[in-house]
Design goal:
This protein is an all-alpha fold and about 160 residues long. It folds into two domains: about 70 residues, no CATH class; about 60 residues, no CATH class. Helix content is about 60%, strand content about 0%. It is extended and about 50 Å long. It starts with 9 loop residues before the first helix and ends with a helix. Bound molecules: zinc ion. Zinc ion binds next to helix 3. The site of zinc ion has 5 residues, from helix 3.
Length: about 160
């Protein structure tokens, strides 16, 4: 293998190296993922005892799963459709409050590439505010938003 590498295009060598690293990383995670969960739980317990363990490992995970399911169920039943998406997606303010902005689900369906879900000034979107902060410190780049032309196409 070593004597073949100089014959390969340098970009191809990088790509092959990346692919091998990705395969090895996936194999490592697949074999050890339970240790990561238990290890993180042990660190949390060591840090703050049983209350931290309950809040960080139990309540946080339960909250995360349930609000995700809430967006994908409630926001297809209740709320308003601001955009012509041809589906059942809806903007729901109370889901947006508990999901930090993910409840503006009709906006998400209309402009799935958009980093911002709350497109109106009054649509509170905490995730968008975090992205704005990350952008301001240079940690987020190429942040996508819907153009006015695209908004006109989806206008209801
Ligand atoms: Zn949806």
């Amino acid at each position: 293998m070593i004597h073949i590498l100089p014959l390969m295009d340098f970009g191809l060598a990088i790509w092959v190296g990346y692919l091998i690293a990705a395969i090895l990383w996936r194999r490592f995670i697949k074999r050890t993922y339970l240790w990561h969960i238990f290890g993180f739980g042990a660190l949390v317990y060591a840090w703050g005892g049983f209350p931290y363990f309950v809040w960080i490992m139990g309540v946080r995970n339960t909250w995360g799963y349930h609000v995700t399911f809430l967006v994908n169920s409630a926001c297809h039943i209740w709320g308003k459709q601001a955009w012509n998406t041809g589906d059942l997606s809806r903007n729901n303010w109370w889901v947006a409050v508990v999901t930090f902005g993910e409840g503006w689900h009709n906006n998400h369906h209309a402009f799935e590439y958009s980093a911002r879900h709350g497109l109106e000034w009054w649509q509170i979107d905490l995730c968008w505010y975090v992205i704005c902060f990350l952008k301001s410190v240079g940690l987020a780049t190429n942040v996508k938003l819907p153009t006015e032309a695209h908004k006109l196409k989806k206008f209801k």
